Amino acid sequence: MTKSITIVAILLLSVVACKQKKETTTVDPNAEAIALAEAKAAIAKAEEAALQADRDTLLFYQRGACFGMCPIFDLVVYESGRAVYLGKNYVDRIGVYQTTIDPTALQKIRTTADAIGYFGLQESYDNPHVTDLPTTVTMIASGEGKLKTVANRYKGPAGLRTLYEELDKMVEAQDWKLIQSKN
């Protein structure tokens, strides 16, 4: 009888011990390559969207999602000054809006881009191990009509923040007309 109690006790202890085994996490060795591929895909998507929308694209500005309440929108501005804004989430304007931006404001963006050396920046600033940051994508046409795209999610140069501030001021200063609500 004591042998059977001992055997049952050993079996119970082994079952309990197996259930309490700690889970281990592994770091995906391909995480960096995956993050780089995702950044390149975002750049390609931005370039394709802007080019398909209109061949005279001056700039594209996109703020992406994060795990919190980050503003999410796309802005396309054409050489003519026509601008289309798509507000997606956590912004004052949700839906599709249109306006015409004054050439002086557009020149200020070009001047800022030149001042920060935009056309010499890397295509991507990222860290695959930091996941709770939004990606900001900008694409600006150079004087020669070539498009330069920069995706910034982690530790981009301070000059990019200066450019974003100027773009945000330009967006807020406009009289946007609603074209289509989100629904």
Explain what you see.
This protein has 183 residues and is an alpha+beta fold. It has a single domain, classed as Mago nashi (Mago nashi protein, 2-Layer Sandwich). The protein has four helices and eight strands. Strands 5-7-6-1-2-3-4-8 form an eight-stranded mixed beta sheet, covered by helices on one side. A hairpin with an 8-residue loop joins strand 1 and strand 2 (72-78).
Mean pLDDT: 81
What portion of residues is helical? Answer: 25-40%
Largest sheet: 8 strands, mixed
Shape: globular
User: How widely separated are the two ends?
Assistant: 73 Å
The first-level CATH class name: Alpha Beta
CATH architecture: 2-Layer Sandwich
Kindly state the number of beta strands: 8
Low-confidence stretches: 1-25
Number of DSSP helices?
Answer: 4
Element order, helices and strands? Answer: HHEEEEHEEEHE
C-alpha Rg, in Å? Answer: 25 Å
What's the SSE blueprint?
Elements: H1 2-19, H2 31-53, E1 57-63, E2 72-78, E3 82-89, E4 95-100, H3 103-115, E5 124-125, E6 136-141, E7 147-152, H4 158-172, E8 177-180
Parallel strand pairs: 5-7
Antiparallel strand pairs: 1-2, 1-6, 2-3, 3-4, 4-8, 6-7
Helix pairs in contact: 3-4
Which characteristics define this entry?
single chain, 183 residues, alpha+beta, Mago nashi protein, 8-stranded mixed beta sheet, 4 helices
Task: Write a compact overview of the structure shown.
The protein has 183 residues and is of the alpha+beta class.
